[in-house]
Each structure stands twice: as structure tokens, then as C-alpha cells.
Amino acid sequence: MRFAVLMDPIESIDPAKDSSFVIMLEAQRRGHEVYTGHPRELYTDGVRVGARLFPVLVGRGTPHFELQEPRNVYLDEMEAVFMRKDPPFDMDYVFSTYILDLLDGKTLVVNDPAGIKMANEKMYPLRFPHLVPRTMVTRSIVGLKAFLEELGGRMIVKPWDGNGGRGVLLLSKDDRNLNSLLEMSTSDETRHVVAQQYLPDIRSGDKRVILIDGRARGAILRIPADDEHRGNMHVGARVESCDLTPRDLEICDALAPSLRRDGLLFTGIDIIGGYLIEVNVTSPTGIQEINAFHGTCLEAEILDHVEQCVNSGKKRLRL
Ligand SMILES: Nc1ncnc2c1ncn2[C@@H]1O[C@H](COP(=O)(O)OP(=O)(O)O)[C@@H](O)[C@H]1O
Ligand SMILES: [Mg+2]
After folding, report:
1. Ligand 1 atom with minimal separation from the 201 CA
2. What is the pLDDT of residue 288?
3. 2-111+307-311: CATH class
């Protein structure tokens, strides 16, 4: 099979941590041809969707890849296209999903571009009100302060389009910087923010669960550094092994039908203290860490699923 992996430049990834990289490695091990390129290379001539892509060989040595001469490839000639670009989820990202939409029913795209476009990582959980902590999404500073009061004087405020912990604030009502922080985070009430009940259980970790086709396949715990409230690996969180609790499985079961319907085959959800915080659909990661702790090979499970779709003639993940 021929697989195209649309992602950030392969030279910029960390081969010891990157999930797209192990998907490529496993695809190559299975004898598939792998192409890679940035989604900015996508185009359509009005009839077909193409991109300038590099045939690539990957390996565990240094360097971790070898690119061949780029060539123009029509994506309907691929058996599957993996959309694995990292956020920011900006208009450029959205636009690339509009181009990929044109492959609908012609080539399997993982995750489904319609699903990616529709599933904001911090808003998707709110479809399941019984699984999320108390949350308010607004740009009104008066509204945010009233919510802070209601929550007993402490809350989290974060940008709806952030990632890696950027701009996530732990606010308290007696902080004299409060007004200023709310003005900054809402850009003077011109941008919505997500305000949330602060979950003290974050001290024992922010759990990342990987789901494949709606099934929980493994998890890791990210423990915030002592001088941090954020449990993101980018800001120094420590990674630990963990198991899936009945509550985690309950959350995954609740999400599964919706993830399947939206064609979100490979997702990573974040859980703090038994509450669903985020549903990552663009380029979820964590499979190398989970594999290392649990001896799994999650990339093989993803590829099993993709191969099965291809072999049965299924060209769209969305139901
Ligand atoms: N409701 C919350 N209670 C406690 N901590 C939170 C909460 N929401 C976010 N955080 C903290 O902020 C970090 C990042 O938040 P998250 O919502 O996952 O945004 P990002 O997309 O930036 O990772 C979490 O790991 C956690 O430490
Ligand atoms: Mg997160």
C-alpha cells in the first residue's frame, strides 16, 4: 500500500517521542510505501487532490529518515492519507481539511477531515456534560469573575485554541492581578476563554488515554513539576506508567459512538481526577511512551485498522 503522512517537517520531530514516526516505521516494516510532506503542499486542480511529497525511508539510526526526490502525487492514488500536523489549529489548518474533504469516498483519510474540523479539542468534551468539571466558556470578565466566586475563589482559565499548556492560568480571587490576567487572557473581552473548576487531583497527574477506534488502548500519567500547576510534557511534567480505571473506561465508552461517527480513529483524551478535559484529534501523541511502559505496539493496532478498511474497500472513516 502507499501511505501519505502529512505532518510537520520530519527533520524537526523527536524520533524517540513522535507518534507519526512510529506509524511510519511500522508501515515501512509491513512493506508499504511511505510518503511525507507538509499540508501546505496540498492543492487541487479542481478535479483531483495532489501534493508535492517526499518518498521517505525511516529508521532508528541517525539521521532517523532519508528523503528521496519529491514528486507530485495525487492523493487518490494513495491507499490512505494520515493527517498528522501539530496544532496550532488555525484557519490554515482548517483550510487544509477543506482540501482533504475532496478525497471523501476516494481515499481513506485518518482522522477524517470533517471530524477534525468539527472537533475542537476543548469544546468536544462539553458534549458530555456528565463527564466534565464545571466549565464556563465566555469572553465576559464580569461573567468570569462571577463564575470564580461560584467556584469558591479558585479556577483555571485557558485559551480555547491552546496546546502544550500555553496560557493556562490558575487564578484566585484575592490575586490583585486578577483583572489584569482576565483582560490579558480574553484580549480585553475580544476572545472567548474556557474557565474551569480547578481540580486539585492534578497533583497526582493529567492522564493521557489513547483510543483507537473508540477503544482505550493504553494510558500514561503526566505529573506536573513541583513549581508548576500544568501537567504538560512541554513544561517539564514527568511521565509515569498508569492503568485504566473503571472511570476512565466509562469515559471512553461514552465517547466511542461519537468518535466513530465522526471518523476519529486515533485520538488522545486527557483526564484529570476522573473528569474529561480534552479530546485531542489533530496529532495525538503518547504511543511511544505507552508502548515503553506496557510492551504494546499501538501503531500496529492503528495500521491493522487502516489496512482492514483498505482491504474491505472502505474509503471513509466517518459513519
Ligand atoms: N480543570 C482543571 N483543573 C486543574 N488543572 C487543570 C484544569 N484544566 C487544565 N489544567 C492544567 O493545565 C494543563 C493543560 O491543560 P489542558 O486543558 O490540557 O490544555 P493544553 O491543551 O494546553 O494541554 C493540565 O495538564 C493541567 O495541569
Ligand atoms: Mg492537554
Report:
1. 4
2. 97
3. alpha beta
Domain 139-198: which CATH class?
alpha beta
* Element housing 22 (H / E): helix 19-29
Neighbours of ion ligand 2 (CB under 5 A): 270, 278
Q: Is pLDDT of 11 > 90?
A: yes
Query: What pLDDT, in 10s, does the model give residues 132-148?
Result: 999 999 999 999 999 99
Q: Parse the chain into domains and list their residue ranges.
A: 2-111+307-311, 139-198, 201-280
pTM score, two decimals?
0.96
Counting ligand 1 atoms within 8 A of each CB, the residue from 158, 193, 198, 228 with the most, and so the one to mutate, is 158
Is 259 in contact with 211 (CB distance < 8 Å)? yes
**Which residue minimizes the CA distance to atom 10 of ligand 1?**
230
278 is catalytic: yes
Query: Which of ligand 1's atoms lies nearest the C-alpha of 168?
Result: 12
Alpha carbon separation from 28 to 3, 24, 34 (Å, rounded): 10, 6, 7
